[in-house]
Amino acid sequence: MILYRVVRNLLLLINKAAFRVTVEGKEHIPADGAFVLAPVHRSFLDFALVSAVTPRRMRYMGKDSLWKFKPLGWFISTLGAFPVHRGAADREALRRSIEVVEAGEPLVIFPEGTRRSGPVVDDLFEGAAYVAARAGVPIVPVGIGGSEAAQAKGKRLPRPTKVHIVVGRPIPPPATRQRKVVHAATEQLRAEVQRLFDQAQAAVTNG
After folding, report:
1. Structural domains of the chain, count
2. What is the pLDDT along the chain (207 residues), one digit of tens a residue?
3. Which residue segment(s) compose the domain that 117 sits in?
4. Which domain CATH number covers 172?
5. CA dihedral (154, 155, 158, 161) positive or negative
6. Is the distance from CB of 47 to CB of 68 less than 8 angstroms?
7. Considering 5, 47, 134, 145, which has the largest number of Cβ atoms within 10 A of its Cβ?
8. What is the pTM of this model?
C-alpha cells in the first residue's frame, strides 16, 4: 500500500503536468467495497490516467508480456497487477479477478481487451460483466478523452496534451450468470462507455 500510494502520487503529478488531467464524476466511485472499473482503452497511458479517479488501491489485469522483463513484472505486481493472456479466455485471469473483487478490492478491466483506435466503442469482451455477475459487484464505466492524442497505439513516446476523464454511474451487476444476461449487461456497458467517451472527447475538444 505504501508503494502504491507513492507511485500514485507521482502519477498524479505527471498527469497534471503533462496532460492537465481533469476528472468528472468522482462521486460515482463507491467509497468502500469492491467494484469493476471499466474504462475505454485508447492508449498505454490509460492505466496510469485512471488512477486519478480514486485514492483507493485498484487492481489491474495486464498483458502477460509485461512480466517478461522481471524488474517491471515485480514492480507492477507490487502495485497489484496480474497477468492475462489476451486473445483467448484465460480461466486463471478470470479466477484471479473474481478473487480480487470477492476480497473487497476494486478491479480495473478494460472491456475492449486491448488498445483500440478511433471514436467507436464496439465488440466488448464479456469478462467485466461476467466477473461482476459472479461476485455481485457493480460496474463503473469510464470515458477517457484525449489519451489517444497523448500516445496512440504504436507511438513510442507520449506528447503533452489535454486529457479529461468522465466517470459514469455504477451499473448494477447482472442478476444471473446466464449467457444472455451477461451479454445484455455487456451491451449496456458498451453503450454507457461510448456515451462517456463521447462526453470526455467533447470536453477536450471544446476545452
Report:
1. 1
2. 788 889 889 989 999 999 999 999 999 999 999 999 999 999 999 989 999 999 999 999 888 888 998 988 887 887 788 887 765 557 878 888 999 999 999 999 999 988 999 999 999 999 999 999 999 999 999 999 999 999 998 898 999 999 999 999 999 999 999 999 999 999 999 999 999 999 999 999 987
3. 2-206
4. 3.40.1130.10
5. negative
6. no
7. 145
8. 0.93
